[in-house]
Design a protein that fits this description.
This protein is of the alpha/beta class. It has helices at 8-22, 31-45, 50-59, 65-74, 85-106, 122-134, 152-160, 173-179, 192-195, 208-212, 231-244, 259-262, and strands at residues 110-116, 142-149, 162-163, 180-182, 188-190, 198-202, 217-222, 245-253, 267-271, 274-278. A seven-stranded mixed sheet has the order 6-2-1-7-8-10-9.
C-alpha cells in the first residue's frame, strides 16, 4: 500500500490537532521530520491519505490510543545521565542543602521532587543518585521522586532501568561503579536501590486537571521540555508549577529556558555562584 505525501495544509491541520490535545507546537520547518513518522502510523493502519488519518484521530479514536501511538513516535527522547552538570551541582550542593536544613529545623523529614517530562528516566534517576550521595542520613527521610512523561514507550524504558553506554558518558566513574552493572550485551543495569526511589506516571502536561492535582513539591525539574510549547502553554504550565511548589521550593528548567521570561511569580536567589528560582 502506498501512502500519499502529506501536504502543508494537512500538516497544519494535524499539528493544530496535536497542539490542542498535548500543548506541543510543531513548526512548519519540522514538516519533513513529522511527516515521515505520521506516514508510519498511516501505513500501520492501512490509511492512504492524510485527510483520512486526520478523520481517524478526530472521530474514531475515543480513547486517544492512536493519538498516543503517534505521540510516542513524535516525541524526541535524546537525554543522558547528569545532563547539564553545573545545574545539578548547584542543586546538590546548595539548593538541596538549603531545603534539608530548613526541614530539619522544622522537624520535617519529607522530601518531594517532581521530574516533569522525564523521558527515559535519566533525569529522575540522576536526582536519586545525587540524593543518595548528598544526604548522609537518607534512611531517616521520607523521599518521593515522582517522574512523568507523555510517552508510554519512554516510561516502559524507565521501569526497565537498562541503558546504553552513551547515556552514561557524563556519569562520574565512582557513581558508575556504585550504581550500575554492566550486562553482557554492553548495556548497563541501574541498581534496584536507585530504581525504587522513583515512581513513574503517564501525564500529559497540557492536562489541566492532572497538573492541578500535583501539590507540595520541594523541587520541580522540567528541563528541555518547554521548548516544545508555545508562549501561552509555557506560561500556563509554569504558573501551575508555582502552585505545585511548597513555599521555599525550587524550579529547574533547561539551560535554554528562562523562568524569568515566562513568569514573574518566582523569586531569584544566588546559590554558590548560580542564579536559581524559588517560591
Amino acid at each position: 500500500m502506498s501512502v500519499s505525501t502529506i501536504n502543508l495544509d494537512d500538516f497544519d491541520r494535524l499539528t493544530d490537532f496535536i497542539y490542542r490535545k498535548t500543548g506541543i507546537r510543531y513548526e512548519r520547518k519540522k514538516q519533513y521530520f513529522l511527516s515521515k513518522r505520521i506516514e508510519k502510523r498511516m501505513q500501520a493502519l492501512g490509511i492512504e491519505s492524510a485527510p483520512d488519518y486526520i478523520r481517524r484521530l478526530r472521530f474514531t479514536d475515543p480513547d486517544s490510543s492512536e493519538l498516543q501511538s503517534l505521540v510516542n513516535l513524535l516525541t524526541i527522547n535524546e537525554t543522558y545521565f547528569f545532563r547539564d552538570f553545573p545545574q545539578l551541582q548547584c542543586f546538590g550542593e546548595h539548593c538541596l542543602q538549603d531545603a534539608l536544613d530548613r526541614k530539619r529545623a522544622a522537624g520535617d523529614r519529607s522530601l518531594r521532587i517532581w521530574s516533569a517530562g522525564c523521558s527515559t528516566g535519566e533525569e529522575p534517576f540522576t536526582i536519586a543518585i545525587i540524593l543518595m550521595e548528598m544526604i548522609d542520613d537518607i534512611g531517616a527521610w521520607d523521599i518521593a521522586i515522582e517522574a512523568s512523561d507523555i510517552d508510554l514507550t519512554a516510561l516502559e524504558k524507565c521501569r526497565e532501568g537498562m541503558y546504553e553506554e552513551r547515556c552514561l558518558r557524563d556519569v562520574p566513574a565512582p557513581y558508575l561503579d556504585r550504581y550500575f552493572k554492566r550486562i553482557r550485551n554492553g548495556s548497563f543495569k541501574l541498581s534496584a536501590t536507585v530504581r525504587q526511589m522513583a515512581r513513574f506516571e503517564h501525564i500529559n502536561l497540557s492536562d489541566k486537571a492532572a497538573i492541578r492535582a500535583k501539590r507540595d513539591f520541594d523541587f520541580i525539574f522540567c528541563r528541555n521540555v518547554l521548548i516544545y510549547f508555545d508562549d501561552v502553554s509555557r506560561k500556563r504550565l509554569v504558573d501551575q508549577f508555582y502552585v505545585a511548589l511548597r513555599p521555599g521550593g525550587y524550579i529547574f528548567l533547561g539551560s535554554s529556558e528562562s523562568v524569568g521570561r515566562i513568569s514573574t511569580a518566582f523569586s531569584l536567589k544566588r546559590m554558590g555562584g548560580y542564579i536559581v528560582y524559588h517560591k
